[in-house]
């Protein structure tokens, strides 16, 4: 356990930051899963909207240093490639 006041403060700060970061990370994952589920169901218009929301949340998470910018870029690229491929197979 922490002995000094500064170490105790660090623990408090870490708890706050962890909770905040978890919120950004979780919402990005949720939108990605939603978009993937809608793609498999063949609802491409709704999947496009969910993908746009995922895009926004990934950008925001990267901007706030919750995830690395390249990680966000990679996830966005994979999501958009999957959406394009799903639309191609549907046509």
In summary, what is this structure?
The protein is mainly alpha-helical. 87% of the residues lie in helices and 0% in strands. It is built from 3 helices and no strands.
Description:
The chain has 91 residues and is mainly α. It has one domain (5-90): Up-down Bundle (Methane Monooxygenase Hydroxylase, Chain G, domain 1). Helix content is 87%, strand content 0%. The chain contains 3 helices and no strands. The chain has helices spanning 5-41, 44-63, 69-90. It is elongated.
Which terms summarize this structure?
91 residues; mainly alpha; Methane Monooxygenase Hydroxylase, Chain G, domain 1; 87% helix
- Are there runs of 5+ residues with pLDDT below 50, and where? none
User: What's the level 1 CATH class?
Assistant: Mainly Alpha
Q: Name the shape in a single word.
A: elongated
Task: Give the overall average pLDDT.
Answer: 94
Instruction: Provide the β-strand percentage band.
Output: under 5%
- Shape-level CATH architecture: Up-down Bundle
- Rg calc: 18 Å
- CATH homologous superfamily placement: Ribosomal protein S20
Helix content: over 70%
Largest sheet data: none
- The structural class is mainly alpha
Number of helices, counting only DSSP H or I runs of 4 residues or more: 3
Q: Total number of β-strand segments?
A: 0
What name does the CATH topology carry?
Methane Monooxygenase Hydroxylase, Chain G, domain 1
Order of helices and strands: HHH
Total domains = 1
